Amino acid sequence: MDSQKTTRQYMLAIIGLGALCLAIALFTFPPEKLSLQFVFLSLLTIAFGSRISIQIPRFKSHIAVSDTFIFLAILLFGGEAAIILSAVEAFFSSWRFCKKKISVFFNAALLACSTTFVVSVLRVFEIDGSKVIHEEAHTNLAISLSVMALVQFVFNSGLASIYGALKSGKPWWETWKTHYLWTSVTYFVGAIAAGILAELVFVIGFGVIIAAAPIIVFIYLTYRMYLKNVEMSLSQAEQAEQHALILEEQSRALSESEERFRSAFTYAPIGIGIVSPDGKWLKVNKALSEILGYTEEEFLATEFQSMIYEDDLGSTLVKLHELMTGKVPACQLEQRYVNKRGEIVWVSWSVSATSDHKAERPNLIFQIQDITAKKLAEEQLQYKATHDALTGLPNRAYFMARLEQALEKSFDNPAHKVSVLFIDLDRFKIVNDSLGHQIGDELLIGIADRLRECLRPSDMVARLGGDEFTILVEGRYEPREVVRIAERIREKFLSPFNLSGHEIFSSASIGILHASDKYTKPEDVMRDADIAMYQAKRAGKARHETFTQHMRDAVKETLQIETDLRHAIEKQEFDVYYQPIYSFETDKIEGFEALARWEHKTLGMIPPSRFIPLAEEIGVIDALGEQILRRACQEGCLLQQSAPEADSFVLSVNISCKQFAQLKLAENIKQILEETNFSPQNLKLEITESVFLEHTETAIEVLRQLCDIGIEINIDDFGTGYSNLHYLTQFPITTLKIDRSFISPIKENGQNIEIVQTVMMLARSLRMKVIAEGVETEAQYNQLKDLNCEGAQGYFFGKAMKFEEARDYFREKNRPPMPLPPMEEISVVSTLQ
Question: Is the model more confident about 354 or about 299?
């Protein structure tokens, strides 16, 4: 970019300088010089000057007539006339060959500058061309012409070579020497011609110029024709000589060629054989014998058809027929031969006919190259590209290609059915995390073997990646046959896997999809089979589910709920409902359990059992949990103030086990309590037993930090999860909340109360309190009271309610009883009655 900018700046500078020279020449041009002779010379120069040039034999140079006319203008009409004529002639000459304006003006300006410089040098040395001619001083004329030619050449070639050096980036001297040095001849010859014409004009008159013009053109054309004839004569002589040498060389090389051909045929690195039109081997080389293992005599005693692999013979004969009938000049094919040991040899086969035009049926030339190693390598690469390296099963790419082919068949033939089983292992991550990836890989290999055993011969099982497998079932079958495959897989997985001394049980969730005519893409089939598989996981794992349209609608709805859930958390659209907690000890409502509620704009009230697990799954449970806790603590202060006469106030808030993954959970809760000014002694956090399994180490530390703050911990839904009594002694637990599933069966006669009794005995032995959930009948209330249960909650005491309702309810239930009137007032009333 810098060189282009510099070149353009140089061109503009020359154009400006040339314009200045031209302007001065026009201003100082003597009017008396503007004669018919000058006009004629100008028209002659513009019309023919640059068009006529004569090449100098043996040189690269040409003599341009325009140079002669410009020098002649200096001698006859003075320097100003020559400057004007040179600029105009260069402009029209450049315009014929180049339409780029800056280049045209640059060439005109360049010649104007160089001519101006020539005129200036002549005047410095006081040389006047017209006077020299009139004085008939031939020595002075020769000097004048030499000075004009030399100065014009040096200045013009110098400026032009600077432009060429800037444009090409090469040194100026190298550019001038290579492209402009030889042009000096042009200037000197042009100057000599101008001198001769000037002398003739002085002696004869200006009419000699008019007469010389057609003669110059004629001489030019004659000379051009002469040069062409000379070149043609030389060319013909050289061609004759070369032809003789070629014939001699061909004669000598023919015998050498025949010998080389024999040697090349015999020792060629590829197999070559000459075969007769009826298939007989006529001649073979050593490489062909090595490829197929036959000797030359064994080749000549048989036909080529007997050595070709049977399945490839048909295509070979078709190709040969096309060649023999002239449809193709040659043919190539990859085919299989059978060598002498009976082994298959892959070869690249090329065949053409010999150039014997006299024969009606020419012989055939076979070229055979062994590509067995290449084909085996291609097969291995193809296998690796389409199969799983660990299990040896087809991979995702191969399975999807087969599925696409199966769908195309079913589209063409409705009787051809297609079904897919999408298999995902249950709890495979636990195996990897606990026993290592090596054992996990061994388990995947074992599972692949068992899946193969469950299939029909026409079915295909593939590994998609990780712990996901798929089975393709296609052809004529009944849908129940696909279900039986899933049942066989479940039965196979009932037996343990013995891996490096470890006995491991595994199970799988299976989604089944029967493709209909609506499925045109394999991706759509896999999507819906995957949906069915996840439905099987949600239904309890270790089972199979068949896809229905309802499943896809549910997935779409879940996806929409997921998006709306994120927005709802950002906009804090969740409500907190409060369910009363009743104390059997005080016979009063001692507090509330804060419950998250979400009223969707279009779907209505969405239960926590749906959006809480979703929040855990997509990783927003921390933000949701903190939002609910902060709201509950803010409103908890107001609830506590609504009934200040209550002995104590308890606010229970649920904490998801996923929140225990936070290292700063206790610190965040403490900060929320400080911001809301809610006392930690009035807060109880409820956790489930799954915390014991998922976050054992961190949970113990976090719970101890919470207890140090003054917060009590309750076990919610006790008895329904992973119950490890050992952890009850490690965790700082104060209360066990018995799940509603153990309360609802209780009857008036005391039936179905054994589990509750057991839990209460356990709690008392651990010095814990018990709260029963889901109390709905008076019988349940009475039985729990007889068992000395500390607390209860359920519809019997009140449903979950909004903050305003909970505040009124708490104020009403904890209002102190009206005092009895004095005894005197009672007596008076009785008397009056």
Answer: 299
For 61, phi then psi, to 5°, come to: -85, 155
Two structure tokens written together for 83 = 């400057």
Q: How far is CA 599 from the centre of its chain?
A: 42
Res 819 pLDDT > 60: no
Are the beta carbons of 673 and 683 closer than 8 angstroms?
Answer: yes
Q: How far, CA to CA in Å, does 652 sit from each of 63, 117, 213, 585?
A: 111, 106, 120, 18
CA atoms within 13 A on the CB side of 831: 6
Query: Among 98-102, 297-301, 336-340, 543-547, where is mean pLDDT lowest?
Result: 98-102
pLDDT beyond 80 at 591: yes
How much is the pTM? Answer: 0.52
Q: How large is the average pLDDT for residues 403-417?
A: 93
How much is the average pLDDT of 290-301?
A: 89
Contact 636, 651 (CB under 8 A): yes
Nearest to 123 by CA among 159, 154, 147: 147
Residue with tokens 């007596």: 827
How many whole angstroms separate alpha carbon 340 and alpha carbon 741?
Answer: 81
Closest to 336 in 3D by CA, of 348, 352, 321: 348
To the nearest 10°, report the CA torsion of 290, 295, 299, 300: 140
Exposure of 720 by Cβ count < 10 A (0-12 exposed, 13-18 middle, 19+ buried)?
A: middle
* 801 vs 576: CA distance, rounded Å: 9
Whether 74 and 127 have beta carbons less than 8 Å apart is answered as: no
Question: What is the SS3 string spanning 400-463?
Answer: HHHHHHHHHHHHHCCCCEEEEEEEEECCHHHHHHHHCHHHHHHHHHHHHHHHHHCCCCCCEEEE
SS3 labels along 141-175: HHHHHHHHHHHHHHHHHHHHHHHHHHHHCCCHHHH
Exposure on the CB side of residue 625, measured as CA atoms within 13 A: 26
Cβ atoms of 453 and 409 within 8 Å: the answer is no
Q: What is the pLDDT of residues 253-286, one digit of tens each?
A: 666 666 666 776 777 788 888 899 888 998 888 8
Collapse the DSSP code of 687 into the 3-class scheme (helix H, G, I; strand E, B; otherwise coil) and give the result: strand
Q: How far is CA 72 from CA 100, 151, 611, 824, in A?
A: 30, 15, 104, 156
| Residue 50 CB burial class (10 angstroms; 0-12, 13-18, ≥19) | buried
Q: 459-498 pLDDT, tens per residue? A: 999 999 999 999 999 999 999 999 999 999 999 999 999 9
Residues, the chain: 833
Distance of CA 708 to the CA centre of its chain: 54
Q: In this structure, which amino acid lies at residue 368?
A: I
What is the C-alpha to C-alpha distance for residues 237 and 628, in angstroms, rounded to an integer?
108
- In this prediction, residue 221 carries a pLDDT of 52
Secondary structure (3-state) at 232: helix
| CB-CB contact of 575 with 598 (8 Å) | yes
Distance of CA 96 to the CA centre of its chain: 52
Higher per-residue confidence, 770 vs 46:
770
pLDDT of residue 817: 55
Contact yes or no for 443/375 (Cβ under 8 A): no
Instruction: Find the angle CA(533)-CA(569)-CA(603) to the nearest 5 degrees.
Output: 60
Distance CA 369, CA 244 (A): 41
CB 399 within 8 A of CB 471: no
More confident of the two residues 151 and 755: 755
* Tokens 């199970």, residue located: 507
CA distances from 224 to 7, 192, 215, 270 (A): 37, 21, 14, 58
Burial class (CB in 10 A: 0-12, 13-18, 19+), 88: middle
The answer to whether residues 155 and 118 touch, using CB atoms and an 8 Å cutoff, is yes
Please report the pLDDT score of residue 826 as a whole number: 36
Two tokens, residue 275:
């075969």
